[in-house]
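In this supplementary section we document a worked example of the pipeline. Step one takes a protein sequence of length 686 as its only input; no multiple sequence alignment statistics are reported here. Step two produces a three-dimensional model, which step three serialises into C-alpha cells for compact storage. The input and output of this example are shown verbatim.
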Amino acid sequence: MPEILREAVTWGARSRRWALTWQAIQCFSADFKIPASSDGVLRLRFCTARTVAQIPKDSVEKVLEATDIVDLIGSYIQVKKAGSAYRANCPFHHEKTPSFYITPSTQRFHCFGCGKGGDAIAFVRDHENLPFVDAVRKLASRAGIHIIEEDSDPNADQSRRARGRLLDIHREATAFFHERLMRDPEADHARAYMKSRGFGSTMAAGWSVGWMPDRPQVFLDWARSRKFSGRDLVDSGLVKLKEEGQPRSGLFVRFQDRLMFPIRNEMGDVIAFSGRQLRENKNSGKYINSPETPIFKKSKVFFGLDRAIKPILKEKAALLCEGQIDAICCHELGIAHAIATCGTACTQQHARLLKRYTSSVLICYDADNAGLAATEKAYRELVPEGLSVRVVEMPAGDDPDSFLKSHGEAAFRQLLADAKEFFDFKLERAKANGAFNSATERSAALKDCADLLSLMTDFAARENQLNIVATHLQTSTTALRDAIARAKAQPKRNFTEKSTDLTDSNRPSEPSPLHRIVAVLCHLALSSGPAQRFLGEQFETLHEAHHWLEGVSLLETILGAAPDPSSNAAVNTFMSSLSEADRLALARETMPQDGAPSDGLQAAEQALSLLSATVLQRRDAAVKTELKQPGLGTERMLELLHEAKEISSLLRGIGQRSEFDDELPASTWKEKAPPWKKWQDRPRKS
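The serialised model returned by step three reads:
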C-alpha cells in the first residue's frame, strides 16, 4: 500500500472519522480494499492530494446547538405555529396548501409535498445552493461562532491566505478612498458632483463611497505604506502592469479621478469597485469596474444584494435595476429590495443566485430600446430557473434615480404595484408601435412569443401566460401550443423543464431504497437511547435481514456511529455526514413529528419483531418460488422442503402479518376467518 494511503488509513482509524477522511480525497486510479474495525470492509481509492477543507465534528455540533431552526427558517419564509410544530409553504416547490413542517423538538424540517428535509445546515445548503462547508460557515457567522477548519489540501492554506490578502486590500482601500472623498481638498469636484446628484455625506458614509486621487502616485505611496506589494495590487485589479507580462514595466492605476463605489459580496465583504467618471474622457467609459479576480466574478455578483436580502424576503420579490446609482437611490428612499448587475447583462448565474431568496423579479430598466432589449435578455435568463418576471414600466426618458427625485417614493411604489407581466408589457408595447398590423407581423410575433414561452419551467404559470399571449395575438391556444412544441424541438439553447446544465456529477440524487420497517428502526435509533442500545445488540437479526430488506446497511451505519439521541446537534451532525441519497431516504419516509416515542425500547422490540416476520415471509415466498422451478435436483428439493417446514413453524408462532397483500405472493399468507364469521356461515337447522 502506498505510504500516503497507509498514513491516511492510520489517521482515519485513530480519529474514527472515516467519512470526512475519504470524502476529502478526489480519486483517479485503482481501488483498494482496507479492513476496518467492526464496519466490515471500507472501499477506497488511492487519490491525488487535491482536497478540500473540513470542519471538525465538534464545531458542526456547536453551530447546530447555537442555531434555532424555527428562527432560521423564519428569517427566510413566513412560518406559523401548528400545535407543537410550525408549518409554512414549502420554499423548494410551488404549493398553495402548507405541507412544510418544522419540529423544534428535533430541530429538523420536512416537506410532505416534495420530500425535502433535514437540519438547519441542510436548509441553508438547499435554499441558497451552497456546499456543506459554506452553509456551516454562514450559520457560524450568524451565530457568532468562530470555527477552525482542518485542511486536507496542502494548497488550501495558501489559497485562503491569498483570498484573505485580497479582502484586506479591498477593505483598506475602501477606507482610503472614502477618507479622500470626505477630506481631500483636491476632491472638491467629486463632492460637488455628489451634491448635484442629490447625495450628501450621509449617503457617502452609508455606502462607503470614495474618490481615487487623480495623481496615481498618491495611491501607490499609500499602498506601500500599508505593506501591499505590487503583486498584491495587480492581483486585486486596482492596478495593472503597463506592459502585460513585464513586471519591470511599472504599474498603471486603473481608476484615476473617479468616484469609487465598493462592490460587496453577500456577506458584505468588499470584493471589487465600480468607478464613475468625473471629468469627460472619450477614451474611457463613464463607468468602469474592477476586472475579474479570484474573489470577484461579475456574472455571480449583484450590487447591493448584501443589504437587500432581508427586504427581498419581506417583499417576496427582487427589484432589478440597470445601474448602481439607481439601486442606491432606491435604498436611500426606503425601497430596499433593489439590486443591480455589475457591468454585465443578467446571466444564468445571477438567476440562480436570486433563486436562493425569491421566486419573483421586478425588472426596472430604462424605457429606451436598449433597456427593452436588456429586459428581454434578463427574462431569458431568469425564467428557465423558475423565477417569475414582471416589468416596471418607466416613463420615457426616466430611470429610477431621476423618477424618484422628481416624483418621490410614493409615486415610484405605485409604479412597482402596477408592474406588468412580461408578456403584457412586451405585447402592449409592440401593439402601440404598430407591430401587429399585418398577418405576417402577427405570425412573427407568435413565433417569438412561443420561443419565450418555451423557456418557462413552471407549467401552471406557462398555461396562464399562454392564454394572455393568445388573446393579444388573436390566435388560438392550440396554435400557440404547437408553436411552443416546435420551439422546444429546435431550441436556441438547451432549455428543459428543469435546470439545464445538470451533469452526472451534479444531478440531484435519488433516495436510497429504504423499507418502511427499517425506516422506523432508523428513527428509533436516532431518537431513543434505550432503543439504540437494544438494536446495537441485534447483530444476527440485522445481518440476516440485510439480504431481504432494503436499507439495513443505513441502519447499521447509524448504530455504528451511535450519535447521542438526547442531543439534536449530535444527531443532525451525524445526518449531515451521510450521503445525499441516504439523507433523502430518511427525509422521504414519514417520521413522527414529536421526537422519540414514550417507550423507545418497547417500540424497537415491536418493530424488530415485525422486521423478523417480514424477513420470514420473504424467505417463504422465495423458497416456494424456487420449489416450482422445473428441473430441480432431489438434494436441493429436500433442502428447500426442510427450510419451508422450518419457516412455516416460525410463521405460525408469529400470529400476525407484516406486509400488504400486494407485496406478498398469495401462498405466503392465508387470512384466518374470525370466530363470528364461522358462526355466521355455519348451516342452519331446518
